[in-house]
Amino acid sequence: MDQKSTHSAVLLEGPWGSGKTFFVKKYLRDRAARLAKQPGSNGGGFLYVSLNGVRTTKEVNDQFFAQVYPDLDHPTARLVGSLAVGLVSSLTRFKPGDKDVDALRSLMVDLKDQVLVFDDLERCAMPLPEILGFINNFVEQDGRKVIVLASEAGIASEQRTSYDRGKEKLIGKTIRVGSDAGAVYDLLVDDLPSGKAQDSARENRSGGLAIFNESMLGNFRSLRSVLDDYDSLVSQVSVKLAGSPEALRRLFFSMLAFGMEVRAGSLTEADVETYLLNPAYFAVEPDPQETRVKAVTGKYSNVDWSDTLVTLDLLLEIFRSGHVNVAAINAQLDTHPILNRATAPAWRKLWDWTRQTQSEYQAAREEFIDDLTHRNYRDPAIILHAIGLVLDLATHGDHLVGEDIATYFERYLDDLAAAGELIVDREFADFPYSAYGLGFHGKKQPLFRTLMGAVFERMEASAEFEAQARVEDWIERRIAGDGTSAPYDDWAGGGTFDRTAVLQHVPASKFAGVLLLDGRLDITLWVALHRRYEVGDLRLMRSEAAWLGQLRREVDRLVDLMPPPQNAHAKSEVDRHFRKLRIAFERHELDLDSLMANPATT
């Protein structure tokens, strides 16, 4: 680079993400700063062009123009050339599109004493002989110093022969990029804004480098992106995180390993949802995808995938969009024992029992047993965490609730159900493979699955009890003249009780009186019935079909008591609504008329 003239270009060759761009820009900036201090030096600047997607040499000139004349730059970089043409045209006789205008624009770009860098050669949309010939003009005709960056592995096979011929003419020296990971890591960390994230990355240098090497990806571009995301997260969320070196370390290692694999396409959103957030413990044999995910995550010795401090779905959102969901992340940090041991619930403290001191474990154990004794865990997800912990600790010799774990939790659930305190959580019941971002201890034990079934059975019973009370209360208020429509959202499609079989417990005569209140059909309530059965929960449909038969008889009785012309209109409308109900059942291969006529078959 310090020679007065050259007769060939230099090629920096290496795989994508190997640090070529970072290296050459840093080298040239340092060189320019060094030369600027020398008397009589012209500064030794450089112009950088990315050939990614470039289709014409005009686009290359546009990029040069934007750098040489930044005052004429435009927020949309690809319009710079057009603006230049407009400016030239306004000052001369030339019109946009004239070949002389392109020539004049090229003359305006002063390339004297500039090193020219052409990056992403393999991603250029022009035929390679054409772009290589264009670059060669700067070397042979103008005597410019040129550096070309390329990943030869990315060059299409059909262009390989022509590339080799052009390379032989243009390139005088090829440098294979094999950057020292430690040196690049230090440079990237130094580029971070000073703060806790930068300090943490420096303090955990050896662990961070171990993760980078274990990834076997060698992608410094991904490393830089993950470091930036780590800094963004740490700078925005609760200051409690920045105050805990251990929490920062665990998060840093998790983000580094996960981010590298996400950017490489080795871990997808589906992988996160299916295997990492919600490990499928029902499978007897792991499927091929699960085996693949385990192979990816198993590379990292310093990463605990079961507790990444911030759940992987929230980290994935950062990697994909750059958005840091501050509220959700802070909610997770606020309950994590590593940051808030004094206020974290006992079950959450005990979940990390393998990382605790003996005194920490004993304190969490006593608090946990006290919570069980007083039936403080009412959320089905937390109850399953408690069951899993008890099972897991029993296998390690600590029997928290005695030897008969099954009987203990059956009584626990019965007590909550009898008191009406078991929380109904339909969303969790649909996908009960993890909760609060944590997998379940003891999940592979047969008794865990048995007790999970018991939890959901009691939850269903609680849902029926609560739904029945609410529907009956609504009916009484409706009959009394209260115009509220409260239950529509509760038990129609998408509501709290849309899959809770409850209407069979409501007197059909009372419900019919609301459907046909004072001779007028409540259309909204009829529509809610349609939506309820369109959802397609077979258990609910079978449980309530006989009740629908009773309801039909009660509605027909009320219609028969109506005087004309209302009775004829009401009969027609009732027939129409029940036809819609039949259609809803038929969509799920159920015969409503048969089920209504033969209650024993439900």
Description:
By secondary structure, the chain is mainly α. The chain folds into four domains: 9-178, P-loop containing nucleotide triphosphate hydrolases (Rossmann fold), CATH 3.40.50; 182-340, no CATH class; 346-461, no CATH class; 485-601. Helix content is 59%, strand content 5%. It contains 29 helices and seven strands. The strands form two sheets. The chain has a five-stranded parallel beta sheet, sandwiched between helices. It has a two-stranded antiparallel sheet with strand order 6-7. The longest helix is centred in the C-terminal third of the chain and has 34 residues, at 446-479. It is elongated, with a radius of gyration of 35 Å.
- Average pLDDT over all residues: 83
Low-confidence stretches: 74-81, 91-101, 279-284
Q: Tell me the β content.
A: 5-15%
Structural class: mainly alpha
- Oligomerization state: single chain
Question: CATH top level of the largest domain?
Answer: Alpha Beta
Query: How far is it from the N-terminal to the C-terminal residue, by CA?
Result: 86 Å
Largest sheet: 5 strands, parallel
CATH topology call of the largest domain: Rossmann fold
Relative helix content: 55-70%
Helix tally equals 29
Give the CATH architecture of the largest domain.
Answer: 3-Layer(aba) Sandwich
Side-by-side strand order of the widest sheet: 2-3-4-1-5
Radius of gyration: 35 Å
What's the domain count? 4
